[in-house]
Amino acid sequence: MSYRTADRLRTVTLDDVRGAHKMLSGVARTTALEGSRHLSSRVGAPVLLKCENLQRTGSFKLRGAYVRIAGLLPEERAAGVVAASAGNHAQGVALASSLLGVRSTVFMPKGAPLPKISATREYGAEVRLHGQVVDESLAAAQEYARGTGAVFIHPFDHPDIIAGQGTVGLEILEQCPEVRTIVVGVGGGGLAAGIAVAVKSLRPDVRIVGVQAEGAAAYPPSLAAGRPVSLSHPVTMADGIKVGRPGDVPFALVGELVDEVCTVTEDELSAALLLCLERAKLVVEPAGASPVAALLSRPEAFEGPVVAVLSGGNVDPVLMERVLRHGMAAQGRYLAVRLRLTDRPGALASLLGALSVVDANVLDVSHVRTDPRLGLTEAEVELHLETKGPAHCAEVQQALRDAGYTVMG
């Protein structure tokens, strides 16, 4: 029997997760479980945040990667390991390999955020940039494994990976024995499967809800079909759960043990990330905020106490800026307006003065004088404003109208 065939026939048990927990002692942090008063008031029951965004490397991925690499035979370790990732798995494999004295090579897309590339190198991996998307990096990593004998470390489709991720579930039961619902983001399914194995083995009454981004939700159609189904073009800002096909091993476990897989929109992800930053004071990437997005979108659907797993915090600063703007816009805290005014000295100052009266913060001004659509004495101004919410947006627009301006959008 080949090693690959043996892996596919293996499942994951509570004993596997407990063994992984012992193996990770002194390696992975027991991350904090923090209460959220804001979410608790929305849900009507205690809500706690499992802060895997504060794990070493900034995500839960170290757990599974370490267990997988630690379980290799001596000759396999000597051949080194290879992985493909745009971020979290790359860093987990890099650090786990360094801790175990194993050579690691990680293929990353050429467009991967520079902070994630730098971090992966600093954790000790040789980084090779290949392709524009992770699928191309994945193909290159698998070709490298075939050519060199290096062991390919899959991000989610292996029993050892799942057992390592399942240690999050053991910690939740220790930290919150009264938990009734656990909400966790789902990409390939490794984290959800591992948590489900650990929790359902000890507390079958606990409800486990998986969350996927609406534009990258491969699990609902796969569960309906009874087999993994591939998405042709998954699209979401949450790259940590942007997976086009469930893994074979986690799919079987999710189908058996996870009670529900729901989806959230990009607006809901943005609002959740903003809430984590503003109210919980936690930097969380969009994938890590997906459980919070589910709680915000359907607060009545979750019996408490609820634990939401914040799976990672490795967010590119450029993406963070975009997502925060999107989240504020989704909450009605940004307002974009276009209007025309007479092109004369002081006209723009008068407009800004009218906005200051209603306490609207001007973020950006675009002032156009030369356009064939405009009259000889006209100018068009586009304003991006920060407001206090939908009611304030309406107040600002009315104030502009009262001041004699025609608001076009």
From TrEMBL:
Keywords: Allosteric enzyme, Lyase, Pyridoxal phosphate. SUPFAM superfamilies: Tryptophan synthase beta subunit-like PLP-dependent enzymes. Pathway: Amino-acid degradation; L-threonine degradation via propanoate pathway; propanoate from L-threonine: step 1/4. Its cofactor is pyridoxal 5'-phosphate. It comes from the Bacteria. Its EC number is 4.3.1.19. Residues 336-409 form the ACT domain. In the native structure, TdcB is in a dimeric form, whereas in the TdcB-AMP complex, it exists in a tetrameric form (dimer of dimers). Belongs to the serine/threonine dehydratase family. This is L-threonine dehydratase catabolic TdcB. It comes from Streptomyces prasinosporus.
